[in-house]
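Morning!

This is the sequence you dropped in the shared folder:
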Amino acid sequence: MTHPRTQLRAAFVTQLREAIPSLGQQVYSGRLMPIEEPELPAIVVHTREPEQIVDRSTSGFDGFERRRCIVSVICVAQSYDDLDENLDTMAQQVEAALQAWIIPGFESADAMLMDTSSEPPDVDGSLTTNATTLRYAVEYNTPYRTCSNPYVISDGSLEQSGAYPGGQVTPGCPADSIGTVCPTGGATIIVNGTPDPTP
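The structure's back. C-alpha coordinates below.
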Protein backbone atom coordinates (compact mmCIF):
# COMPACT_ATOMS: atom_id res chain seq x y z
CA MET A 1 0.00 0.00 0.00
CA THR A 2 1.26 3.48 -0.87
CA HIS A 3 2.33 5.53 2.16
CA PRO A 4 0.06 8.52 2.94
CA ARG A 5 2.99 10.93 2.52
CA THR A 6 3.48 9.69 -1.04
CA GLN A 7 -0.24 10.14 -1.69
CA LEU A 8 -0.15 13.66 -0.23
CA ARG A 9 2.78 14.74 -2.41
CA ALA A 10 1.10 13.36 -5.52
CA ALA A 11 -2.17 15.13 -4.64
CA PHE A 12 -0.37 18.46 -4.12
CA VAL A 13 1.45 18.13 -7.45
CA THR A 14 -1.74 17.33 -9.34
CA GLN A 15 -3.64 20.20 -7.73
CA LEU A 16 -0.91 22.76 -8.42
CA ARG A 17 -0.47 21.63 -12.03
CA GLU A 18 -4.20 21.99 -12.65
CA ALA A 19 -4.62 25.25 -10.72
CA ILE A 20 -1.53 26.99 -12.18
CA PRO A 21 -1.58 26.00 -15.87
CA SER A 22 1.21 28.49 -16.71
CA LEU A 23 3.66 26.10 -15.01
CA GLY A 24 2.66 23.17 -17.19
CA GLN A 25 4.33 20.01 -15.88
CA GLN A 26 7.02 21.96 -14.02
CA VAL A 27 5.68 20.94 -10.61
CA TYR A 28 7.78 18.14 -9.16
CA SER A 29 7.45 15.73 -6.25
CA GLY A 30 10.52 15.34 -4.04
CA ARG A 31 12.93 16.31 -6.80
CA LEU A 32 16.62 16.28 -5.80
CA MET A 33 18.26 17.16 -9.11
CA PRO A 34 18.99 20.87 -9.63
CA ILE A 35 16.40 22.71 -11.69
CA GLU A 36 17.94 24.07 -14.87
CA GLU A 37 17.19 27.48 -16.37
CA PRO A 38 14.85 26.19 -19.16
CA GLU A 39 12.66 24.57 -16.46
CA LEU A 40 12.06 27.79 -14.54
CA PRO A 41 9.77 28.89 -13.02
CA ALA A 42 9.04 25.65 -11.20
CA ILE A 43 7.64 24.22 -7.98
CA VAL A 44 9.02 21.36 -5.89
CA VAL A 45 6.84 19.57 -3.33
CA HIS A 46 8.45 17.53 -0.56
CA THR A 47 7.73 16.05 2.89
CA ARG A 48 11.18 15.83 4.47
CA GLU A 49 10.39 17.27 7.89
CA PRO A 50 9.58 14.98 10.82
CA GLU A 51 6.01 13.73 10.87
CA GLN A 52 4.37 13.98 14.29
CA ILE A 53 1.82 11.72 16.00
CA VAL A 54 -0.67 14.16 17.53
CA ASP A 55 -3.30 11.67 18.73
CA ARG A 56 -3.87 7.95 19.01
CA SER A 57 -6.95 5.92 19.86
CA THR A 58 -6.79 4.36 23.31
CA SER A 59 -8.30 1.05 22.25
CA GLY A 60 -4.94 -0.43 21.30
CA PHE A 61 -6.41 -2.48 18.44
CA ASP A 62 -8.42 -1.58 15.33
CA GLY A 63 -7.76 2.07 16.15
CA PHE A 64 -6.25 5.10 14.46
CA GLU A 65 -3.37 7.53 14.65
CA ARG A 66 -3.71 11.20 13.84
CA ARG A 67 -0.56 12.46 12.18
CA ARG A 68 0.70 15.92 11.24
CA CYS A 69 2.67 15.96 8.00
CA ILE A 70 4.54 19.08 6.87
CA VAL A 71 4.28 19.54 3.10
CA SER A 72 6.75 22.08 1.72
CA VAL A 73 5.88 23.83 -1.54
CA ILE A 74 9.02 25.48 -2.94
CA CYS A 75 8.57 28.10 -5.65
CA VAL A 76 11.73 28.63 -7.73
CA ALA A 77 12.11 31.50 -10.20
CA GLN A 78 14.76 33.40 -12.13
CA SER A 79 14.59 37.01 -13.26
CA TYR A 80 16.50 39.97 -14.61
CA ASP A 81 14.61 42.52 -12.52
CA ASP A 82 12.14 42.16 -9.63
CA LEU A 83 12.55 38.53 -8.59
CA ASP A 84 10.75 39.06 -5.26
CA GLU A 85 7.64 40.19 -7.11
CA ASN A 86 7.74 37.10 -9.33
CA LEU A 87 8.06 34.82 -6.30
CA ASP A 88 5.27 36.65 -4.48
CA THR A 89 3.04 36.10 -7.51
CA MET A 90 3.84 32.37 -7.50
CA ALA A 91 3.22 32.16 -3.74
CA GLN A 92 -0.12 33.91 -4.20
CA GLN A 93 -1.09 31.38 -6.87
CA VAL A 94 -0.12 28.49 -4.60
CA GLU A 95 -2.12 29.90 -1.68
CA ALA A 96 -5.18 30.41 -3.89
CA ALA A 97 -4.90 26.86 -5.22
CA LEU A 98 -4.68 25.26 -1.76
CA GLN A 99 -6.78 27.55 0.44
CA ALA A 100 -10.17 25.84 0.04
CA TRP A 101 -8.88 22.62 -1.51
CA ILE A 102 -10.32 19.28 -0.40
CA ILE A 103 -7.47 16.75 -0.64
CA PRO A 104 -8.57 13.61 -2.53
CA GLY A 105 -8.34 10.63 -0.21
CA PHE A 106 -7.86 12.94 2.80
CA GLU A 107 -11.28 14.57 2.88
CA SER A 108 -11.19 15.14 6.66
CA ALA A 109 -7.83 16.94 6.44
CA ASP A 110 -7.02 20.59 5.77
CA ALA A 111 -3.88 21.98 4.19
CA MET A 112 -3.12 24.79 6.66
CA LEU A 113 -0.42 27.31 5.71
CA MET A 114 2.09 27.58 8.57
CA ASP A 115 4.68 30.01 7.27
CA THR A 116 6.47 31.37 4.21
CA SER A 117 10.22 31.92 3.89
CA SER A 118 12.73 32.89 1.19
CA GLU A 119 16.19 31.57 0.40
CA PRO A 120 19.21 33.84 -0.20
CA PRO A 121 19.35 34.75 -3.91
CA ASP A 122 21.82 33.08 -6.26
CA VAL A 123 23.22 35.70 -8.64
CA ASP A 124 24.67 34.51 -11.95
CA GLY A 125 25.62 37.51 -14.06
CA SER A 126 22.54 39.63 -14.65
CA LEU A 127 20.20 36.75 -13.76
CA THR A 128 19.11 36.10 -10.19
CA THR A 129 17.56 32.84 -8.95
CA ASN A 130 15.69 32.54 -5.71
CA ALA A 131 13.11 30.36 -3.96
CA THR A 132 10.16 30.88 -1.64
CA THR A 133 8.97 28.01 0.55
CA LEU A 134 5.39 27.69 1.79
CA ARG A 135 5.01 25.08 4.55
CA TYR A 136 1.63 23.43 4.96
CA ALA A 137 0.54 21.31 7.93
CA VAL A 138 -1.77 18.45 6.98
CA GLU A 139 -3.33 16.38 9.77
CA TYR A 140 -4.78 13.04 8.71
CA ASN A 141 -5.89 9.75 10.25
CA THR A 142 -4.20 6.45 9.52
CA PRO A 143 -5.14 2.98 10.83
CA TYR A 144 -3.33 1.83 13.97
CA ARG A 145 -2.88 -1.87 14.80
CA THR A 146 -5.36 -2.97 12.19
CA CYS A 147 -6.06 -6.34 13.74
CA SER A 148 -8.64 -7.70 16.12
CA ASN A 149 -7.87 -7.81 19.83
CA PRO A 150 -5.80 -10.99 20.24
CA TYR A 151 -6.93 -11.38 23.83
CA VAL A 152 -10.66 -10.77 23.67
CA ILE A 153 -13.51 -11.75 21.38
CA SER A 154 -16.13 -9.11 22.02
CA ASP A 155 -19.08 -7.48 20.34
CA GLY A 156 -16.62 -5.46 18.27
CA SER A 157 -16.83 -2.27 20.28
CA LEU A 158 -13.61 -0.45 21.12
CA GLU A 159 -14.82 0.07 24.70
CA GLN A 160 -14.06 -3.55 25.64
CA SER A 161 -10.38 -2.81 25.82
CA GLY A 162 -9.34 -3.72 29.34
CA ALA A 163 -8.53 -7.37 28.81
CA TYR A 164 -4.99 -6.94 27.53
CA PRO A 165 -1.86 -5.27 28.93
CA GLY A 166 -1.95 -1.53 28.52
CA GLY A 167 -5.67 -1.41 27.87
CA GLN A 168 -8.29 0.68 29.55
CA VAL A 169 -10.59 -0.40 32.32
CA THR A 170 -13.75 -1.93 30.91
CA PRO A 171 -16.98 -0.63 32.47
CA GLY A 172 -17.79 -2.64 35.59
CA CYS A 173 -14.19 -3.63 36.31
CA PRO A 174 -12.21 -2.36 39.30
CA ALA A 175 -10.12 0.74 38.71
CA ASP A 176 -6.87 -1.11 39.50
CA SER A 177 -7.40 -3.68 36.74
CA ILE A 178 -5.55 -1.77 34.02
CA GLY A 179 -3.23 -4.18 32.26
CA THR A 180 -4.89 -7.29 33.71
CA VAL A 181 -7.53 -9.65 32.40
CA CYS A 182 -10.94 -8.19 33.12
CA PRO A 183 -13.68 -10.03 31.22
CA THR A 184 -17.15 -8.58 30.86
CA GLY A 185 -20.38 -9.89 29.48
CA GLY A 186 -19.99 -10.71 25.82
CA ALA A 187 -16.22 -11.16 26.08
CA THR A 188 -14.23 -14.39 25.99
CA ILE A 189 -10.68 -14.86 27.23
CA ILE A 190 -8.44 -16.56 24.68
CA VAL A 191 -5.58 -18.78 25.90
CA ASN A 192 -3.22 -20.18 23.27
CA GLY A 193 -5.81 -19.64 20.59
CA THR A 194 -8.72 -21.35 22.37
CA PRO A 195 -11.36 -19.95 24.75
CA ASP A 196 -10.44 -20.21 28.44
CA PRO A 197 -13.28 -22.02 30.26
CA THR A 198 -12.38 -20.57 33.66
CA PRO A 199 -14.64 -17.67 34.78
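Headline: Helices lie at 4-19, 83-98.

More detail when I'm at my desk.
O.
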